[in-house]
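Practice set, problem 2.
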Amino acid sequence: MRILLTSSEAVPFAKVGGLADVVGSLPKALRKQDVDARVIIPGYGHIDHLKYNISHLFKFDFYHRQGKTEINLYTCIYDDVPFYLVQAWPYFGQEGDVYTEWTWDMERFIFFNQAVMGTIWELNQRLDWFPDVLHVNDWHTSLLPFLVGMQRHEAPWSDLATVISIHNIAYQGNHAGWFMFQAGVDNRFQPDLIYQNLTDNLLGIGIAYSDMVSTVSPRYADEIKYPYAGYELAGLIQTRVPDLQGILNGLDTDLWNPETDPKLVENFNVDNFETKRPVNKRHLQSFARLPIRQDVPIIGIVSRLATQKGFDLALPALRNVLSSRDVQFVVLGTGEKDLEYAFWRLDNDFPDKARAFLQFDAALAQQVYAGCDIFLMPSHFEPCGMGQMMAMRYGALPLVRETGGLADTVDNYDNGDGEFGTGFVFQWQQASAVEGTLHWALDTYRDRPDVWRKMQIRGMSKDFSWVKSANEYLAMYQRAKNKLM
């Protein structure tokens, strides 16, 4: 089977969030199962062509409503996966960031959808390669199922199945009507889109026209059927329930491996972590200029600092806990300015207990996973989440809210002898719930070290690899193909 994944992000070339990790890792897992999986993304200006041995493949003229644009297609092989990068002035090729301002992103990503159609055609003509399934991701590429549908009256488009993955339904690419009109995109007459006034919503268009719809965790697939999580697209999701599937994201276990991770000062595994992991904790404390004490638990956060992540709940809870308990706290991330300021205040108000690194630092992120004891993810909603899985793999116990992928991956401590559980889970979206659960986790760390060790072993031993998820994607691809027969 030939699969073409397309996205606005893919590791290692362009990463803003977890979307990039999925699109970078899933095709690698698929190819290990003899699937011809390839990826096409925009060729952003900041991508280092020399570093990744990227070469020019071919160019072609693409005609559209606003004129003629020369498209240059570049390619490379990374981790055995063929990647294609689309450059076309002025849309892609000179920018320093993945995303810019809203109006320009609307125009350039609608163009990218059209350019992918042209590129698929050229790949077929020049290399005799045409996908069986086109797998699009989030709103940036969700116009493609509609564009494919408009060509299904003729071969080879009639045999091309489409699948859309929703990584975060809160970002929809709505109010895109004028931009689609400018680009010459045909009107959308799908009844559910018209009835629910969604003909100008890019993600909605992708959901309506795809052969199959997936989300990045089973729990999130259930949650988005209702307005509290699905927003204005909940009704549309309800119409696609027979074709909706939640598939949990996997981890690239070759990359995220504490036994081989070069960013750690001491590597460890599930058999020797009791003696070797503390070296990483001491290093984290030293780097954060905190007292080096093995007996003091460290609460860690590595995240985009956004309200969605529940930090409005966590901040008052952390302030109370830091005031009343013998505990340390380290946060790494950037995001909303009011949250950055609030974490900076914690750093300043508790200089011997808290440290805020308001930056992006991939190496420090690994060291936080490997050095903290409690990893805090109090999200209001979380489609899947990768941080809690990385934390468990690196020996930290996650403290999470029961939502989305967090509920699917973290088993709540049984508050007994530790025969069940990999972390601490709360339900209510209240600061008091975060604070109470933090006290529960801190008491367990202090009073029940054997229980803590059991949960660490269980978390480090959980299989978060892509093998199972890749098989589920393969089955979904086949269901999409079967719908065309």
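Problem 2, part (b): a different protein.
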Amino acid sequence: MKNKVLRTVYYAALWSVVFIFIAPIIWIGMSTFKSKADILALPPKFIFSPTLQNLVDLFSRPTFSKALANSLLLSFTSVTIALLVSFLASYAFSRFKPRVTNFFMFLLLSIRMVPAAASVVPLFLMYSNLGWKGTHFGIILFYAMFSIPFSVWILKGFLDGVSMRFDETALVCGGGKLHTMFKIILPQIRPGLVSAFIFNLIFVWNEFLFGFIIGGAKVEAMPVTLATGAFTSTGIDWPFVASLSFFNLIPLIIVMFFFQKYLLVGMTFGTVRGEV
């Protein structure tokens, strides 16, 4: 009886924590289908007449389709480039083990320790002088560069867990170096690739500061559209804020739902595999 009570209290506490974290998402989802009066109503309305007008207004905005296309292009392109570069770098660190590996790994991680605001001014000046400001190439290059350090850390952890005998067996059987890397070793770290992809996708998809300052209107993504389109002559457009915020969450929720097991593995920074 005592164990049953403790188990009930334990699961009740877990569900309470879950509810606290998902309550803002539920509230945004409800506000998407509320009128402006219902959104601002006090006390808050939990029972209301739903409307699709907010979504209709959102989809009719010319900036929305452009922002969605930019978000998809910037996110998937930059993260894919970052994963390719990170795999090559982490393979070199894991297999060849240069003496400065620990120093370089610390140096890579320290890049992510620098506050974003501290690097805005030099990046803005550099991009302006090079003519990259307001271009897709420039912002993709920046997001890829910013995603590489964390990806290297994740992938190196997975590669360290893959026995060297995979490489040795492939080379003895006549496989080339590229064949060994991409056909033998790469499939072994698929969970690491997926988890690194998701972590970086979340960052790039939600990044605002650099997209706003060095991106500009031509490469405006959804976080920038949300910030610039929220204010009107009559105040904050809460239906637009709610509907765009909710729509901005949907792709990430779908990705995380289908790949949540890889995300959990990625948080452990690698696994240990048996030898061949």
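Answer key, part (b): Residues 119 and 180 are 39 Å apart (CA to CA). The beta strands are 231-232, 235-236.
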